[in-house]
Amino acid sequence: MSYAAPETTEAPLETSTALGAMDFCDSCGAQAYVRVTLAHGELLFCGHHAAKHRESLGDKVVGWHDETDRLRDDRAS
User: Fold this and answer.
1) How many Cβ atoms sit within 10 Å of the Cβ of residue 44?
2) Which residue from 1, 7, 37, 44 lies 20 to 30 Å from 16 (Cα-Cα)?
3) Quick check: is 38 in a domain?
4) What one-character-per-residue DSSP string does 31-77 give?
């Protein structure tokens, strides 16, 4: 008797770790806030270069981990 795993339509959980102080933009060396996962590796970008390269990367992107919301200062009164 064989056992077949149940089919699932759920997307896999994102396992990307948070970007830290030692993660730098591959274009300019600034603090990285975006991790782009490609089929054969990953790229790190600052907010500026992520926006600049997003369209040109197109369908090569497997995952897009964006932490640019950390750049906003929500403490303003």
Assistant:
1) 20
2) 7
3) yes
4) BP-EEEEETTEEEEE-HHHHHHHHHHHGGGEEEEEE-GGGGS-TT--
Q: How confident is the model at residue 73 (pLDDT cuts 50, 70, 90)?
A: confident
Q: Over 60: is that where the pLDDT of 6 sits?
A: no
What angle is formed at CA 30 by the lines to CA 76 and CA 55, rounded to 5 degrees? 90
Q: Provide the pLDDT for residue 41.
A: 95
Distance of alpha carbon 73 from alpha carbon 6, whole angstroms = 45
> Residue 61: inside a domain, yes or no?
yes
pTM over 0.85: no
